[in-house]
Amino acid sequence: MQAGQQDRLAALRLRIARLEGGVHKTKPLPFGLHAIDDHLPGGGLARGALHEMIEAGLASEFAGCTTLFTAGIAARLKGPVLWCLTRRDLFAPGLFRAGLHPDRVIYAEAEREREILPLIEEGLREKGLAAVVGEVTRMSLIASRRLQLAAEATGVTALVIRRWWTLAEKDLVHLPTAAVTRWRIAPAPSELMPAPGLGRERWHVELLRCRGAEPRTWIVEACDAKGRLALPADLADRSDQAADRRATAS
Amino acid sequence: MALAQAQALVPNLHVAEATPDEDEASLRELARWAINFSPMVAHDPPDGLWIDIAGAAHLFGGEEALLDDLTGRLTRQGIAAKAAVADAPGAAWAVARYGTGGVVPTGRTTDAVATLPLACLRLPADKLAALHRLGIERVGQLAAMPRAPLVRRFGRDVALRLDQAMGHVFEPITPLIPKDTPAAAHAFAEPIGRLEDLKEVVRHLSKELCRQLERLGEGVRRLDLLCQRVDQKSVCIRVGTARANRDATHLAKLFDERLPTIDPGFGIEEMVLVASKVEPLMEKQVQARGLGEEASEADMGQLVDRLGARIGLRKVYRLAPVQSLVPERMARRIPALAPPTGSVWPENLPRPTRLLDPPEPVVATALLPDHPPRFFIWRKVKHTVAKADGPERITPEWWNGDKGSAARDYYRVETEQGGRFWIFRDAPTAEGGRWWMHGFFA
Prior knowledge:
The structure holds two protein chains of two kinds.
Chain A: H1 3-19, H2 34-37, E1 50-55, H3 64-76, E2 81-85, H4 92-96, E3 105-109, H5 116-124, E4 131-136, H6 141-154, E5 157-162, H7 167-172, E6 181-188, E7 202-210, E8 216-221, H8 238-249
Parallel strand pairs in A: 1-5, 1-6, 2-3, 2-4, 4-5
Antiparallel strand pairs in A: 6-7, 7-8
Helix pairs in contact in A: 5-6
Chain B: H1 3-9, H2 20-34, E1 40-44, E2 48-52, H3 63-76, E3 84-85, H4 89-98, E4 102-103, H5 109-114, H6 125-133, H7 139-144, H8 147-154, H9 156-166, E5 183-192, H10 195-216, E6 218-229, E7 234-245, H11 248-256, E8 268-280, H12 297-311, E9 316-321, E10 331-335, E11 354-366, E12 373-378, E13 381-394, E14 408-415, E15 420-425, E16 435-440
Parallel strand pairs in B: 3-4
Antiparallel strand pairs in B: 1-2, 5-8, 6-7, 6-8, 9-10, 11-12, 11-16, 12-13, 13-14, 14-15, 15-16
């Protein structure tokens, strides 16, 4: 590619970024894993944007992995978190395992599914929040666009966990939305331990959709007490991985 | 009966001067207290109170629960009270005084009133005596009489009182606004009904109210908006705030969600905004954003208010740790704006992120009595356990009232596909322990 073409491309990218409302030049939130951060545009999860999480695998209606994955992201952001839900199956001590302090989370419990989206939007309009987490079954393209615009305006990150309760609802989860990224988390078999017992859990993290990046899949180790992921030692290149592990531990 | 006659009948009769003024003053005080139950309260001298609980009963868990709560509180204060809930104010008046009290079911007003004595109709004494002379003792008898001769002989008010007690005609209640309560009112020359107009008026009223509150150094905890319709019916909306507040735009915004539910009918001719519950509020020094960590705290109050206006303040909460290891009891709800507790759950305690409540039974097979299961069938699907950890024994807490329950042995298991579950056995295998699914790990 010639130098002139590259300049033109860079100028075009800048124009698109301006059109997309890149007013908030906040740095994206890195996962602390080179493998993921290098792949995501800007080097991490964009703040002030809508992100969607879908659970796959066994007992996916309970979204056990996705909840911890989301809690880990929220824990690494700074400030209070609003958690909008309809069902009371969330177990708060489990969230603390990802480093989300109970004093930081305000829960808003709606009785009906359709009350959830307005609650999330209300939260996104509040500048003081770090993130709004919503457990949603139905989210139309228009509704998600509203949330995305609200998140862009204030810089609050919106994390939507897609839940489902019947098989008919399970398919709704895959309809298109205006979310900046869409993730699918599934449990993966963990490392075999030399003695009986359980190692750190592993996830199959799939980036299904991302503005400005290709879909991709990683196998990672679940959030630690500070909400950080890690790359499994036996799957990654060992020397590189050792550095990564040290980075996440710090 | 003359006093001398009464004293002759009862030897040591205690005599006290009647003090109608003081009675009315204390009745007003009581009415003011009753505003806790509903914004529409009117006092009805000499001894009654009206409370319009339309749209407020569900906050107390239904009409009967509200009635129990109300009478219970009055009794504890040393006030003997009888209360009734009915479709019409007249019917409630009659049933509370001459009936059994309690809740009159919707649509059964006529039956409930028919057997009561005529005195329950709030008639003047002379009319009552005249009706008694004719042998009419019960409301049912009066209702059965032909209407035209009744009106001709006893006047219109007898028929009106009868209809009011039966719930056939509407009877307005003029809500009491205690004198020193900050309130802002606006009466319109022409009745209004458009939503945009209502919103504008609410903004205007809230500005005026906030000016008053500023002088008093107070902030609002509960706001009532009373709308007087042209046909004398009143509609009211009540909103609450999580902490004392006197930001006019914020308070006006709390009504946005609820204003569309107002039915203006032929138009609204007066709107009153009452701060029915206030708390002292001192001006706080405002810090520029970015200079301090505390800057965002005030905003949380407004966010909680806005969420509370949508779903109710009780549904916006935080979960605080409880010093207990029984999973169902590990967290308790505290108000969203309660000061930070600082306490946390024990670290490195393997706990799931989602809990099944109640636990679901699973069929499991373990190789040895105290081993984790090798297979289990949950929701008709068979899972093969690849790795497991446990048992972690959680014993019942007798000091918390766990009497019948047994100690549980919890296992964390990972299936071949990688799914992690939290399952427990409610007794040792030798004693016929059964397996239960309780939670889902990440």
